[in-house]
Specification:
The chain has 574 residues and is of the alpha+beta class. Helix content is 35%, strand content 23%. The strands form 5 sheets. The protein has an 8-stranded mixed beta sheet, with helices on one face. Strands 9-10-13-11-12 form a 5-stranded mixed beta sheet, sandwiched between helices. Helix 6 packs antiparallel against helix 7 (211-219) and helix 8 (268-277) packs parallel to helix 9.
């Protein structure tokens, strides 16, 4: 190792000002980073009201004022020193963080890249203190009159680091990041009020409220009818929050807000658990809207992973994964159940034109049939109690409930029915159809190796498949609902799906993927005319499903047009 004497660039201790600028690069990525650090410090100081004033997307001015406990003169002067903090006393505290802000370089790092002003006053003090810093250099300290609390102004951000200032995005983009940051923090603290101004104009005003109300205020009141509460306890992990119905899906994860012990974080494991909870309810590539709060012992969470404290590590990740998955799955299972009431039958059938008569199905059931099941108090008969109107384009089943119209995708609904029956397996083994002439399928070398892994699972679902020579299998029986001409394409598709998900994947996951394909091939097709009896049988089977609202791939199996929606659409009501 060189002793530095002959080195072109000898090792040296960096000046404090340069060190602060390097630290600022870790903590202050953009104007939104400043807002985040200042709001977290304000909340840690007990603030219940915060005002955020922004000019030019944060380039010219960022000011956060709070009504927290404030700081004494000595504490204020210490707060601008690197590694000064009131939140960590010893090494053990570093591994049981219970505050939002804790890194000791936040204020000095911010002060090193802007024109900085700190004004604060604590309870019982006759005067407050003002500290002015420019580019990390202390300019002035003076006594001032000020209310209890703290106000920090960061002006002309990155004025002394032009390269970094050059990489700032447009004013609207940076302001968007700031608004998102304030929203993230506001979601975690509904007990506090937040006001956000841009160029003197009020952008957001969230008064202190209940958690559910704050979620609606931030995410939008149009989501009120589709939000579902989640709540669970599992091995010391507490999960709560609100998630949106699967039909409110997005193409990005931008609608997902995750909090661990009150801190907004990013974590792939948590996203995976959320996705697992929505399993079978979202199409591939879609993301839910969710606000999730996870609470656990601080000693089981490492928040000192990322300079911006946005990533965490867990000592017991499996417990967290299972707690969230169960909470989401249980909430959606309950929310998936339709909540309409049985339709009252039409007393007198009007005269219809010939084209419309051909569209409608045969006569409707009598009133006694429609209401008897409801008297027993079974929710489980919601679909079979619908009044059938007919088919639309031989693809969708149109029904009436007391609350409006229900449109059912016959293929998606039947696919769900078959999938759930296949998962139970035993019912299909009994009804398998024996082929008069066994089907022989020749595969290539890699395909036969995968097929041999699938044979036990397929045989339990009503198939009878055996190896037959080098790269050949013979199929002697099929589930009763499958057609023989679909067998080879189905087998090839299952092999390709197994290659896609990975041969070494969990066997249960692989099995479900295969069962989805079998159900899809065997389900009623679009453009298939159904009799009234077939429709009734389908609706009755839907009542027996655990999740009748989605096909196995996540597509909705039914939609509802409420009476209110219809009346509003036709201008009958506002």
């Amino acid at each position: 190792m060189s002793d530095g004497k002959n080195s072109i660039n000898p090792i040296r201790i960096l000046p404090e000002l340069l060190s602060n600028k390097i630290a600022a690069g870790e903590v202050v990525e953009r104007p939104a980073s400043v807002v985040k650090e200042l709001l977290e410090n304000a909340l840690d100081a007990g603030a219940s009201r915060m005002i955020i004033e922004i000019e030019q997307g944060g380039r010219m001015l960022i000011r956060v004022s709070d009504n927290g406990i404030g700081m004494s003169r000595d504490d204020a002067l210490l707060s601008i020193e690197r590694y000064a903090t009131s939140k960590i006393v010893n090494e053990q505290d570093l591994f049981s963080i219970q505050t939002l802000g804790f890194r000791g370089e936040a204020l000095p790092s911010i002060a090193s890249v802007c024109k900085f002003c700190l004004e604060t006053c604590c309870a019982g003090s006759e005067t407050g203190i003002q500290i002015l810093i420019e580019g990390g250099k202390l300019k002035n300290v003076s006594d001032i009159g000020a209310p209890v609390g703290t106000q920090i102004t960061a002006g002309q951000l990155f004025f002394n680091t032009p390269a970094r200032r050059k990489f700032l995005k447009s004013i609207s983009t940076e302001m968007g990041h700031i608004a998102d940051t304030v929203a993230n923090i506001a979601l975690s603290r509904p007990d506090a009020g937040f006001k956000l101004f841009h160029n003197g104009k009020l952008i957001k005003n969230w008064a202190a409220s209940e958690p559910a109300q704050r979620i609606e205020d931030v995410l939008g009141h149009d989501l009120r009818e589709v939000l579902v509460e989640i709540r669970a306890e599992y091995h010391g992990v507490s999960v709560s929050g609100m998630i949106a119905a699967p039909r409110i899906a997005r193409t990005t994860s931008g609608g997902i807000y995750i909090y661990v012990n009150g801190r907004c974080v990013r974590n792939r494991m948590i996203l995976h658990a959320l996705s697992e909870g929505y399993s079978g309810r979202l199409i591939k590539g879609q993301f839910p809207t969710a606000v999730v709060f996870i609470a656990l012992d601080p000693e089981l969470v490492d928040v000192n992973v990322h300079p911006a404290k946005s990533e965490v590590r867990f000592a017991v990740p499996d417990n967290i994964h299972e707690a969230l998955r169960q909470a989401v799955s249980a909430a959606l299972h309950q929310a998936d159940r339709p909540k309409w009431e049985a339709a009252q039958p039409v007393r007198e059938t009007p005269q219809l034109s010939e084209p419309l008569l051909s569209f409608l199905t045969p006569p409707l059931p009598q009133k006694q049939e429609e209401t008897s099941l409801w008297k027993t108090g079974q929710d489980s008969n919601l679909f079979s109690n619908l009044r059938i109107i007919g088919q639309v384009r031989a693809t969708y089943i149109l029904c009436e409930s007391e609350d409006g119209l229900i449109l059912i995708d016959q293929h998606a609904a039947h696919e769900r029915i078959l999938f759930e029956k296949l998962k139970k397996s035993s019912s299909f083994q009994k009804t398998a159809q024996k082929l008069l002439i066994p089907e022989t399928i020749e595969l290539n070398y890699s395909q036969i190796a995968i097929m041999e892994k699938l044979i036990p699972e397929l045989n339990s679902a009503g198939f009878e498949i055996e190896p037959f020579g080098k790269n050949t299998v013979v199929i002697s029986s099929l589930p009763a609902f499958l057609k023989t001409e679909e067998i080879k394409p189905l087998m090839i598709e299952m092999i390709e799906k197994m290659i896609e998900v990975g041969v070494k994947s969990d066997i249960q996951f692989v099995k479900e993927q295969c069962l989805m394909l079998i159900a899809c091939h065997g389900a009623i097709r679009a453009n298939q005319i159904l009799s009234t009896e077939e429709i009734r049988a389908l609706l009755s089977e839907m009542d027996q499903c655990d999740n009748p609202s989605h096909c196995p791939h996540g597509r909705p199996s039914w939609i509802q047009w409420t009476t209110r929606f219809l009346e509003k659409s036709f201008g009958r009501t506002e």
